[in-house]
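Contributing new records

If you add data, match the layout below exactly. Sequence lines come first and carry their own label; structure lines follow with theirs. Keep one chain per record. Anything else will be rejected by the validation script.
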Amino acid sequence: MIAFITGITGQDGFYLSKLLIEKGYEVHGIVRRSSSFNTSRIDSLISQYAESGLLKLHYSDLLDSTSITNLVNSIQPDEIYNLAAQSHVAVSFENPLYTTQTSTVGPVALLEVIRNSEKKIKYYQASSSEMFGGIDDQFLNENSKFIPKSPYAVGKVFAHDMTKVYRESYEMFAVNGILFNHESPHRGETFVTRKITKAVGRISCGLQNKLTLGNLTASRDWGFAGDYVEGMWLMMQHHTPDDWVLATGESHTVEEFLKVSFQKVNLNWEDYVITNEKYFRPNEVGFLLGDSSKAKKELGWKPKTSFDKLVEMMVESDIENAKQEKVLLENNLLMPTWEYPTP
């Protein structure tokens, strides 16, 4: 089996690539050409599997439809997983054009090349719980109404609906995975969960004094990314294409995430956290809670990692990162850094 992954250098790209290679796949992914490499998350996979040919990277860009078409026709994958996007919701307000372009042009280019291919290629579209808008404190499933409240969410709704259009119009095997928030030690450092655990690690090692955040009352359904990529794969193995929600069925506030994270190092979060309204979103999504009963019934999927275990995993990883940073600083091998700003 051959898989083609866009967004392979991201958090989900790492866990999905690892899962597929362990299942015997040959995995291909795209990276954007730039002056520096952005493969840090998957460097361990590159060193382990690139020489054997199980992992192959190609230069391309979702906004270059000709390049994408040529690449897919050359690779002839059995499955395409479209994970690529500008996925930071707050950043999408600052860069709405680029955000919506990556979320709309890219999926259509992929769906078109599949439609025109002689090979039957399965397609996975990464949809998002942000599409729901979080208006009420209720369980959200595949039939819940989309009320997007950010440029990121609007782009995701477009891609979600286009995937359904192509599935129904051309009998393509195209699925939408509506994933609620999923985190890991590989989460980007500007996302609130990772910003918290990174700060906890640095504060516990004496490298940072304060942490500035925005809305602490926002509540999310947080799971482990490693569990969620298994759900992606199961969707692609189902006998018929459809849409599925993946979620834990629990919602926790940012304040709860803070409390549990700081407790792991026996500290009181209130002694270190500052809130600033400039970090609030222009149009806040207050509450998200997912119902993945359909995925459990039809795919046999359920989350394996608890909220507490997820936080512990991330904190422990960032403590080790902070310890390494401290050693480098003490040996004058690294310039001092301060708290990373939140977009």
